[in-house]
């Protein structure tokens, strides 16, 4: 049964402390990464045999396999994938940045070049669940940014094949090359490069504890998007909300895994009790009921606030990955939400709309990091170079100021680099 808390009766830490244990996998991940770096494809094939039970002779997905996958996927779902891709493209196209050039002082030109990363790697989870949505959400912003090579890695099934829905999404999203490898070993391959898999500039995409730890360890060798934790949803609902709808929204995240977090914050004690009852009723109907129940019982909670303003303060403190604002006139409260990965406004916008179809990205900051991290975007697939140009008259106007600045910092060579250009005999 989910726990219900009254704000007036509990201590701050009781609300915000997650009860799930963090699995320390740093040592085995380090060993896997070292093996991949030293042995390349040989290590990848061995780990794929050990962990995925697949004996492969080639890691690459062929063009024939991709074509066969497109034929295996039902036309209705292909149509949905294509429409979702269009929505994602339309949204992320608005994020594209342009280079700029400025001449605000005579003789001085300043600017910034915006360049796409040359090659990025996308990790797509496999195993018992397939997530074609992850392919769309990660590949399309990279494509919009202008990335030349989008490399996808995903674990194969025991028969050595990749889920056709994942491959279909890759074809629609414009993925360049696909490889059958998962886990920490796939992250190592992308970070270091092997005989088959090219080294990338950045790795994006979610994964299990081993994947997250591998991304943490290779950061610096390669860039990463973020260290993603278990999925989260916080539903902020007033007393007019339908308890069955709220319970369904909470369970939509609880079914991800046992460590997922589903939280209801409400100003209605009556709604809190009704949602708790609905959760029990709906849990019995789920295909992943055991997982969802573990999530609800260990990490789920209902918080009864004095009013919506206090509820918003709680939401900002938790900084959830997904925040549903189930109230009348939700735009009236949008300006008060400061910490959330993705905000879902109104009673007819459940979180799964963002997971699959609406357009905003579903790769989001978790574990309170929405305080300082942002959703995945086109910005994650670009780099910026700045440039400047001074004419002689412009430098003559300003060099004494720079020289003074440098000497105040004790850097006389810095000062001399500007002074020497105006010393007698140095022109």
From TrEMBL:
Pathway: Amino-acid biosynthesis; L-histidine biosynthesis; L-histidine from 5-phospho-alpha-D-ribose 1-diphosphate: step 9/9. InterPro entries: Ald_DH/histidinol_DH (IPR016161), Histidinol_DH_CS (IPR001692), Histidinol_DH_monofunct (IPR022695), Hstdl_DH (IPR012131). It catalyses: L-histidinol + 2 NAD(+) + H2O = L-histidine + 2 NADH + 3 H(+). Its cofactor is Zn(2+). Substrate binds at residues 231, 253, 256, 322, 355, 409, 414. Keywords: Amino-acid biosynthesis, Histidine biosynthesis, Metal-binding, NAD, Oxidoreductase, Zinc. It is an enzyme of class 1 (oxidoreductase). CDD domains: Histidinol_dh. The keyword Metal-binding applies. NAD(+) binds at residues 123, 185, 208. It comes from the Bacteria. Its EC number is 1.1.1.23. The active site is at residues 321-322. Binds 1 zinc ion per subunit. The keyword Zinc applies. GO terms for molecular function: histidinol dehydrogenase activity. Belongs to the histidinol dehydrogenase family. PANTHER family: HISTIDINE BIOSYNTHESIS TRIFUNCTIONAL PROTEIN, HISTIDINOL DEHYDROGENASE HDH. This is Histidinol dehydrogenase. It comes from Flavonifractor hominis. The lineage of its organism: Bacteria, Bacillati, Bacillota, Clostridia, Eubacteriales.
């Amino acid at each position: 049964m989910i726990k219900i808390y009254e704000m007036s009766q509990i201590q701050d830490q009781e609300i915000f402390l997650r009860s799930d244990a963090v699995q320390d996998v740093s040592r085995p991940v380090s060993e896997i990464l070292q093996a991949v770096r030293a042995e390349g494809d040989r290590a990848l094939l061995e780990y794929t045999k050990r962990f995925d039970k697949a004996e492969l002779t080639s890691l690459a997905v062929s063009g024939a396999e991709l074509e066969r996958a497109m034929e295996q996927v039902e036309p209705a779902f292909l149509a949905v994938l294509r429409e979702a891709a269009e929505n994602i493209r339309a949204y992320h196209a608005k994020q594209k940045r342009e280079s700029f050039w400025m001449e605000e002082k005579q003789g001085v030109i300043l600017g910034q070049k915006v360049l796409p990363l040359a090659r990025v790697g996308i990790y797509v989870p496999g195993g018992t669940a397939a997530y074609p949505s992850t392919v769309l959400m990660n590949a399309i912003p990279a494509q919009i940014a202008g990335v030349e090579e989008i490399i996808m890695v995903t674990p194969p099934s025991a028969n050595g094949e990749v889920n056709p829905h994942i491959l279909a999404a890759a074809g629609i999203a414009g993925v360049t090359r696909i490889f059958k490898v998962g886990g920490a070993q796939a992250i190592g391959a992308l970070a270091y490069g092997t005989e088959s898999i090219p080294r990338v500039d950045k790795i994006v995409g979610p994964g299990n504890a081993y994947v997250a730890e591998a991304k943490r360890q290779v950061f610096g060798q390669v860039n990463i998007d973020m260290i993603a934790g278990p999925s989260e949803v916080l539903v902020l609902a007033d007393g007019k909300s339908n308890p069955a709808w709220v319970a369904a929204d909470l369970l939509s995240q609880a079914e991800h895994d046992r460590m997922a977090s589903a939280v209801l914050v409400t100003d209605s004690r009556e709604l809190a009790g009704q949602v708790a009852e609905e959760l029990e009723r709906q849990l019995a109907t789920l295909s992943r009921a055991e997982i969802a129940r573990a999530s609800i019982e260990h990490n789920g909670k209902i918080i009864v606030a004095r009013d919506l303003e206090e509820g918003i303060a709680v939401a900002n403190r938790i900084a959830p990955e997904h925040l549903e604002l189930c109230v009348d006139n939700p735009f009236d409260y949008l300006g008060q939400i400061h910490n959330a990965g993705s905000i879902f406004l109104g009673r007819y916008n459940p979180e799964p709309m963002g997971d699959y179809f609406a357009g905003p990205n579903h790769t989001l900051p978790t574990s309170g990091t929405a305080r300082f991290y942002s959703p995945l975007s086109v910005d994650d697939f670009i780099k910026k170079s700045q440039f400047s140009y001074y004419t002689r008259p412009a430098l003559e106007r300003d060099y004494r100021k720079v020289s003074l600045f440098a000497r105040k910092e004790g850097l006389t060579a810095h000062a001399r680099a500007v002074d020497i250009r105006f010393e007698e005999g140095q022109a």
